[in-house]
Amino acid sequence: MPTIPFRIDIPLVPESALGNALHFIDLLRSANLLARLRLGNQAPRMDWRLLDADGRPLPTAPAPWSHYTTAMPSTEGPPGSAQAVFIPSFLAADIPAIRQVVARHPALVRQVGIAVDAGQKLLTMGDGAWLAAASGRLQGRTASLPWFYMAGFARDFPGIALVPGRDWTDDGPWLSGALPHNLVDLAIALVRHAFGEELARAFATVMAPDHQRAQAALQANAQQHIPATRDSTLARAIAWMEAHLEEPYSLERLAQAASVSTRTLLRHFQAELAQSPLDYLHALRCARAKVMLEVTLESVSSIAVACGYADPAAFRRIFVRHVGTPPAEYRKRHALRAPRRRWRVEVAGG
User: Percentage of residues in the chain with pLDDT exceeding 90?
Assistant: First the structure.
């Protein structure tokens, strides 16, 4: 059975450096992908929530922001409390401005204190350490800050030690990074805490620049020492579905194309993708339908047929299940083509 996701809360205030938060989420996605590649459907996973200053989840935004405001879909039961909190840096011009940001958000300061008391991991980037320190729960800890903030921080929080020359610090519940490039260091440390040492080492290897390894990979590929991805049951089945998307679904024909029995095919899909071949086919068809709704003026009925559905009503039900909105509504929101009536050109003098 899949494990419960490790959840990270990312509170944002109007002054937050949004780029820090988005980059950190990209790193979490990369860690999840690596874990899935190594361990398959049983891999551990990290989820995240973007919150406002009062701890309320931010509403889901349209693509591409939806990839950040919504974590990877979870099937492990109801969401639980977070196990870590990440505070990005602030867009503040100077130290007095940082102090004003902290003073404007006492509710968030209290939430950080509650998180530390609950044993959650606390991660801060740059001057986000001010807000964490204001919680009063980090006395006697060590932190990393950019050198130009150190004097002011030391005056405000004399009970917290700063280590010159160290870009990031892992001190008990508190992981602090001085500069944006330390987001990778924080992510690796969090992977170690959430996933264990083995996956953390693999993640660190993937994230570290290595020009010699890149050159060696190119040379090995040129000399054909690295073969192409090997054939597999799933690859054969998926390739056949993609080539026969509009044809009626037949589990027997699909299994024949994959050179396995129907039972074996179902087992592979469930073990690797946690879904049936038919569910996967519906997702492929809905992906085609989304493109056609966006870039063509074909009717919904015609698109249904082009995507393998003889019954437009069945197509609408499946589209809503996979996309979350009816086809007509999706077109209204995402169409890249104007309606035909807007194409009409008035004849001069007509």
Answer: 61
Where along the chain do its domains lie?
6-207, 233-334
CA-to-CA distance for 57 and 10, rounded, in angstroms? 9
Judge whether 308 and 287 are in contact, CB under 8 Å: no
Tell me, which fold does domain 6-207 have in CATH?
Rossmann fold (3.40.50)
CB 156 within 8 A of CB 177: no
Give the pTM: 0.66
pLDDT, tens only, 250-265: 999 999 999 999 999 9
Q: In the prediction, which pLDDT does 1 show?
A: 40
Report how far apart, in Å, the C-alpha atoms of 311 and of each of 193, 206, 247, 279, 294 are: 50, 47, 13, 17, 21
60-95 pLDDT tens trace: 776 677 777 755 444 333 445 679 999 999 999 999
Give 262-304 pLDDT, tens digit per residue. 999 999 999 888 899 999 999 999 989 988 888 888 899 999 9
The mean pLDDT value of the chain amounts to 86
Which residues, listed in sequence order, are joined to residue 16 by a DSSP beta bridge?
90
Cβ(117)–Cβ(138) below 8 Å: no
Tokens matching residue 19: 């780029």
Q: What is the spatial distance between Cα 218 and Cα 214, in angstroms, rounded to a whole number?
A: 6
**CATH homologous superfamily, domain 233-334:** Homeodomain-like (1.10.10.60)
